[in-house]
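If you are new to this repository, start here. Below is one unmodified record pulled from the training split, so you can see the exact layout before writing a loader.
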Amino acid sequence: MMKYVSGFQKLVIKAIILMMIVVILSSTLEIGWIILSDLVNPPVMFLNVKEVLDIFGLFFLVLIGIELLETIKMIINESTLNVDVIILVGITAIVRKVMIIDLKTTPPMFLVGMGILVIALAGAYYLINKSGKEFRCELK
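And here is the target side for that same chain:
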């Protein structure tokens, strides 16, 4: 029975990797298309602040996708999951959200929550690195 469960897990992981590759590739092509179309439309060779923020948000989405793909590869190759890598993916996602946030329309409590989340993730990452130990989850 466990042999079938293990085979199913491997099949799901391979499907996730394939889907992640498709999403990362299509997102990268979309970023290129957006930059190209924004640069050729009047005013030529200029991007306004909103366009730049949107493009940076898309860059961070691609980076998050690459980090997730790297994490999945690590799970397959080593059957372990590094906690610090997961925290870094979380920090990257929060940074992306902070960069594209509209302060005029965002509720204050949301901003407080984001600040607490940034402090918690940064503190966890600091403590993990300061300890000098490797925090890994063994996956079997």
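Two things worth knowing about this chain: Residues 2-138 form one domain. The radius of gyration is 19 Å.
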